[in-house]
Specification:
Elements (H helix, E strand, L loop, with lengths): L10 H36 L9 E6 H6 L4 E11 L2 E13 L5 E4 L11 E7 L7 E4 L6 E2 L5 E2 L10 E2 L2 E3 L2 E5 L12
Antiparallel strand pairs: 1-11, 2-3, 3-4, 4-9, 5-6, 6-7, 7-8, 10-11
Length: 186
């Protein structure tokens, strides 16, 4: 060591250096946070009114859907963004009009086993007093025109429905917000 000792630092010098270091780190964090907030606000401003989240699915023109007769199977493709995870989804929904002319959007997924229900050719007025419009091929559960469980489906939860969202003459639905179907009693 040749008798050389490290230079002794004074208390004043130590406090001055550590204060400058603290102010520098605080300044860097403040600037980066402000840049992030500024960029996020500009991104939101750039989004036009025509852009919509991936979970809002466009079904078609309101005029066409309200004028249709019977049941229509409408397929969709969606890109769902959840935090940093992106998921591609494909599927379909059944769209029809109820007795009052309101749009009815039904999930095709049976609430018992998760199979895809299928519309019967002609509404069946058999043993049940209600029409049977959809039937599950896995276990024979039957559902009415509004997705309610009827016939062999008594005791099951009805098919999930989606609330139609109407904007600019187009009909959309939120894929991530199904409403539980009505349960039928035995």
């Amino acid at each position: 060591m040749n008798g050389r000792f490290p230079k002794k630092i004074t208390r004043r010098k130590f406090l001055s250096t550590s204060g400058k270091l603290t102010l520098g780190v605080t300044g860097i964090l403040a600037v980066s946070t402000s840049l992030f907030a500024y960029g996020e606000s500009n991104r939101r401003k750039r989004m036009g009114p025509k852009e919509r989240p991936g979970n809002f699915i466009k079904l078609g023109a309101l005029d066409r859907l309200t004028a249709m007769q019977g049941i229509e199977k409408i397929e969709y493709e969606a890109t769902i963004q959840d935090a940093w995870v992106t998921k591609e989804m494909k599927g379909f929904v059944y769209v029809s009009n109820d007795a009052d002319g309101n749009l009815l959007i039904l999930s095709p997924i049976c609430t018992h086993l998760g199979c895809t229900v299928e519309p019967v050719g002609e509404p069946d007025h058999g043993a049940s007093s209600q029409d049977i419009v959809y039937r599950c091929p896995c276990h024979g559960a039957e559902f009415g025109s509004a997705g309610n469980a009827t016939g062999n489906g008594k005791g099951l939860q009805g098919l999930a429905t989606f609330k139609p969202i109407i904007a600019d003459g187009e009909v959309y639905f939120n894929l991530l917000s199904p409403m539980a179907g009505n349960a039928a009693s035995r």
